[in-house]
Structures are given as structure tokens and as C-alpha cells.
Amino acid sequence: MIAKRGILRLLAVAALAALAWAAFHASVIPEVPLTSARRGVAVLSASGNVTVIPALDGRVVSPAQGILIKFALKEGDIVKKGDIIAEIDPGPWPFRLKESELELSRIDQRLRQGSTTDLELEKRRKAHEKNLELAASGRVPQEAIDQSRRDLEQLEFAISQERGDLKLARDKMLNAIDEIKGELARRRIKAGYDGVIMAPAVLQGDLIMHGAGICNITSRSKAIKAEVNQDDLDAVRKSRKVLVKLFSHGDKVFAGTLSQVLPIGNQGTQRFTVFIDIPNLPDDVLSGQTGEATFIADEHPDALLLPRSALVGTECFVLQGERLERRKLKLGFSTLTETEILAGIAEGEQVVAKDPDLRRDKERVKPAAPASR
Question: Do 47 and 137 belong together in one domain?
């Protein structure tokens, strides 16, 4: 009877031990998140950081020295190309312009009237012609003919020189007038393009020096600048379209094209600046906003895709029953989030989706429960 009781106790202890071992063994089997290879569009792309900047942003400086007699603009005021934004005291230049224009008028009048010796020139010409007629009959000596010719040539030269001097004086006066008008124009400072006044630095009545800053004009049109790694330059240059997402605009995507690659990169960061052309950029896109750009160089439709988080180099772990199998893959196009799989896995096969570097070949695992929403 006692022996029978001992056997029953041993069997009970063994059963409890078996249950404990089974529970322990089940508890140490890791749960892993899984994902499936799926069909989609594989993209050859590059990415970059985006900043919205003004298309034009320049400092307006004074081209002349003097008292600022007009400047009433404030930050935020809108100006058009050609608008006068500031005026400097013209000083003596208007008076000098009037004097020069009067002198030019006098020179033109003298040129129209001709020389005061024109009558004398006509008299000498007729006298010389008369001498030539008389010389034919031998009534005038050759010396008289030679003298009348010299007198005529001398007066013609004097008149020609006088007219040349007047033309030279006229050209000098025209140059002087152009210089005065240029000086006056420099004292009326105009906007070079449409924009918004920023950072005004002077007040009306200030004495300003040549080259002194007056304000900034920032254009209302924007440019999209991106910084890309040198390793991505080939894909960037080949890109057929560019997709831009701005952090301030949520999931909205702006489509554009590559417009320019600056020829010199940053020596410190090994990054290059490129510009993106986005037509009809909305007004709510403001200078200073940032985001990301994806440069799409090529696409493979109906490609087999895996998340990049499922890869360890060119390998992944495929679930076969309850155990993992390490697979070598042939990779194609890759983006920041997905990679094209050319060989090594079939559509629908499940692979470890996260932290595959923590797994090992032939390891027994169980799928992680879906996250509750």
C-alpha cells in the first residue's frame, strides 16, 4: 500500500515537472513581428533636405551720398519693380543740368547758322574763279592765281576747324549731360524687382554715405533648394521627377523637376546644393519652411518589395513553420523605406520585420500578436 502511494506521488511530481518545463519552454520562445514580401513599384531614388528660400533677396545700398529726403517705407511694405523707394537730395545737379542743356542749345544754334566767315569764303571763291577765267586769256599772272587759291584754302580750313571744334564741344556737352542725368538717377533709388521691404536701416532726413545699406527687398516668389549627398548625385541628375514634402504641409506632396545642380559642393559636409522647379507653388508655402525631397530616377512596376527594416545587409530571416531560415537575397532599387528583391524570396513569404540582426538561423520563434489600436 505504501509503495503504491509512493509511485503515485512520483507520477504527480513528474507531471508537474513536465507542465513546468512546457510552460518555461513556451515562455522563452521569442515573439517576432513579421511582414510579407509584396508587389509594388520599385523606385531608384535619392533624397535630400529641402529649404524654401526667396527667389531673390538682396540688400539695397545707396549709390550716392547725401541727405535722404524721401523714405517712408516700413518692413512688410510691398513694392513693384521700378518703384522709387528712396530719394537723396539732388544738390546742385539740377542747376548744372539746366546750364549744360542751355549751352548745348547754343552750340546747336551756331552749327545751324554756320560760320561768320561764310560770306568771306564765298567772296574768295568767286575771286579765285574770276582769276582762273582771266588766266585763260593771259591777263592775270600765275602768282595771283596761286595766291587766291591759298587764301581760299586757308579760309576753308579755318571754317572746317571751327565747325569741328563746335562738334567736339557738342559731344563733350552731351557726355556731360549724360553724366549729370546719371548722377540725378542715382539719387532716385528704385526697386529692382517685385518684393517685400525687409530690415529698413535708415530714416528720412538721415545723412547717408555712398554704399550705405537702406533696406532689403525679398521677392514674393520662392525657390526650392535641396542639399544632397555626393553619393546620390548620379541619381539626382538622372531624376525625371522630384517629390517634395514640407513639414508644415502634412502629407501633401508637391511634384516638380530638377532645375539646377550647383557646380561646387560643401567641402566640410560633402553635400551639394540643387534647385527644384515646382510650378504654381501656392502662396501658403513660405520662405524658411523645410522638408524632404525624393528624386525619382527610374521605376520598376510590379516589383517584389520588402521593408528595409527587414534586411541585414543582403540577407533576411524567413519563417518556415516555427523556425527561421536565413536567406541570401539579390537586391534591386532601394529607397529610404523599401528595397526591391530580385531573387531569394517569393511573394507572400513572411520575414522578420524588425531587428533581424538579433535573430539566428534555425531559431524557433512565434509571430507577435498584432498591435492593438
Answer: no
343 lies in the same domain as 270: yes
224 CB neighbour count, 10 Å cutoff: 25
Beta strands 366-367; 31-32: pairing state: parallel
Q: Which residues lie closer than 8 Å to 49 by C-beta, 6 or more apart?
A: 226, 227, 290, 291, 292, 293
Mark 4-22 as b/e (b = at least 16 C-beta within 10 Å): eeeeeeeeeeeeeeeeeee
Q: Contact, 173 vs 100, CB < 8 A?
A: yes
State the Cα torsion 8-13-19-24 to the nearest 10°: -170
Write out the DSSP string of 78-91.
Answer: EE-TT-EEEEE--T
- Taking only the tens place, the pLDDT of each residue in 6-37 is 666 666 666 666 665 555 444 578 888 898 88
Identify whether 11 is part of a domain. Answer: no
CB 305 within 8 A of CB 39: yes
Residue type present at position 3: A
The amino acid that residue 313 corresponds to is: G
Q: Is residue 26 part of a domain?
A: no
Q: Are the C-beta atoms of 257 and 309 separated by less than 8 Å?
A: no
The phi and psi torsions of 334 (rounded to 5 degrees) equal -140, 140
CA distance 71 to 54: 24
Instruction: Answer whether residue 362 is part of any domain.
Output: yes
Q: Where residue 373 falls among pLDDT bands split at 50, 70, 90?
A: very low
Is residue 64 packed enough to be buried (19+ CB in 10 Å), middle (13-18) or exposed (0-12)? buried
- Tell me the three state secondary structure of residue 270: coil
Grid coordinates representing 30?
521569442
Integer Cα distance of 248 and 5 in angstroms: 78
Residue 7 is assigned to a structural domain of this protein: no
Classified as helix, coil or strand, 242 is strand
Compute the distance between CA of residue 266 and CA of residue 335 in angstroms, rounded to an integer: 24
pTM over 0.70: no
Provide the domain count of the chain.
3
Distance of alpha carbon 280 from the chain centroid: 16
Q: Do residues 203 and 230 both lie within one domain?
A: no
Are residue 157 and residue 199 in the same domain, yes or no? no
